[in-house]
Amino acid sequence: MKLWGGRFSKSTDKSVDDFNSSIRFDARMYAQDIRGSQAHAKMLGKQGIISQADSDLIVKTLGEILTDIEGGKVEFTIDAEDIHMNIETILISRIGDVGKRLHTGRSRNDQVALDCRLYLRDESEELAEMLKGLLKTILTLADENLDTIMPGYTHLQKAQPITFAHHVMAYYEMFSRDLSRLNDWKKRMNIMPLGSGALAGTTYPLDREFVANELDFDDITKNSIDGVSDRDFVCELAFVLSMIMVHLSRFSEEIILWSSNEFGFVDLDDAYSTGSSIMPQKKNPDVAELARGKSGRVFGDLMGLLTMMKGLPLAYNKDMQEDKEQIFDAVDTVKMCLPVFAGMLSTMKLRKDKMLQGAKGGFTNATDVADYLVKKGLPFRDAHAVVGRMVAYCLDNDTVIDALSMEEFKNFSDIFAQDVYDAISLDTCVNMRKITGGPAKETMKKIIDGYKNN
User: Fold this and answer.
1) Quick one: what percent of the chain has pLDDT higher than 70?
2) Does one domain contain both 179 and 146?
3) How far apart are CA 252 and CA 186, in angstroms?
4) Model confidence band, residue 22 (pLDDT cutoffs 50, 70, 90)
């Protein structure tokens, strides 16, 4: 008979057991379930709800079960439904009636809410370390390429000259925000729900603060209904993970473009590329493509969670069992992507000559020509019109602004003088943009050094 089967006169149909069971995916929470149960048992003994001897035996036996699980000596069963009932069943099989006392003062509703928080907190710490590793990789790339000039783009059209350092540090900012979001999420998640019972708490004199302290929570939930029905923390983490994947996908898209023959800005290491089964010349950016593709499944996990929660009345509903597969998949996917993406970046070779050549084309210094005229006294809108005519002239004559003679310059405006050539060189265009946030070498160096020292 199932542990909850006292009210029932028939066994559940095997197909219902299979349908109802979550052990195939929530088994991964075994360590968190045992940790939570040990803290609960300690509290029951401390409060005199069960004897201290029973409390000590339960805690000790749960530790032995943990060792056996990690040693591959335990096989979970579908009949016991979930990780909570599996572990409790094993405990009772080992210490009999004493094991039956563990569930005093709690429900699977608050137990699973606790396990989820513990598990996701552990996973978030690994995710944070992976993000820090990626940030370090980006910082190194930027520091090594303060002088590597490349074209900056808007609308995927060449816009203004920047440096590779400036470009990749944009992603540093994005992933820094992701890390910040992860840390902020932890503040809201790290609230202990055990003691909420099924939905209305319990008449036993539980010491919830003791359990929270044992499990490193910052506080306890203040409403027992919310304690068992809240999955905001699951949805919010899925959003944080989705934002990480948005940024990985955007970066991947650029790497895919840059590694193409049309751009030729980077060469991906052989260890992070694949070939074609039919075309021997191919070197495919599969790591970047997969990271880009896997973003969709994480977004889908977020939408699945939001859809699952949107119509549920209070308090707990079995629908909420569906949260685990989706958040587990999102966590697993991001943990898979981050380290391999960082490895691809760290081994990527830059073709600086191609980047510089790209910056020299497409009139990336046109804005600086206009700024030159403005600094000489011409209103910006007039300067804008002058440079527009110059670009049209260059296109008609298959040339670039830098290559125009002084006579040609003066055909467009008498303001132009010999100093224009230096004013619109790519080095000047980049390094005169010293404003905080700009691509100038001295500005970028200061930003990078500041992040290194944090």
Assistant:
1) 96
2) yes
3) 28
4) confident
238 and 114, same domain (yes or no):
yes
Burial class of residue 445 (count of CB atoms within 10 Å of its CB; 0-12, 13-18, 19+): middle
- Reported as type and span, the H/E element at residue 12 is none
- Spatial CB neighbours of 151, under 8 Å, sequence gap ≥ 6: 158, 159, 160, 161, 162, 355, 358, 359, 361, 362, 364
Alpha-carbon distance of 441 to 255, in angstroms, equals: 23
Residue 252 tokens, joined: 């991947």
Active-site annotation holds for 166: no
Whether the full predicted model's pTM is greater than 0.85, yes or no, is yes
Region of residue 48 (left: phi > 0; alpha: psi -120 to 50; beta: else): left
In single-letter form, the type of residue at position 239 comes to F
pLDDT value at 21 more than 90? no
Catalytic residue among 9, 15, 155, 277: 155
For 51-94, how does the pLDDT look when each residue is reduced to its tens digit (9 = 90+)?
A: 999 999 999 999 999 999 999 999 999 988 899 999 999 999 99
Q: What is the DSSP string of 103-153?
A: TTT--HHHHHHHHHHHHHHHHHHHHHHHHHHHHHHHHHHHHTTTT-EEEEE
Q: Where are the beta strands (DSSP E) in 325-431?
A: 349-350
d(C-alpha 360, C-alpha 364), whole Å: 7
Active site (annotated) includes residue 167: no
**What are residue 350's phi and psi, to 5 degrees?**
-90, 140
Where residue 411 falls (left for φ over 0; alpha for ψ -120 to 50; beta otherwise) is alpha
Taking only the tens place, the pLDDT of each residue in 256-268 is 999 999 999 999 9
pLDDT-derived band at 281 (thresholds 50, 70, 90) equals confident
Residue at a domain's end among 46, 69, 104: 104
Active site residue: 276, 277, 413, 425, which one? 276
- How many structural domains does the chain have? 3
Q: How is residue 193 annotated by DSSP?
A: -
Would you say residue 114 lies in a domain? yes
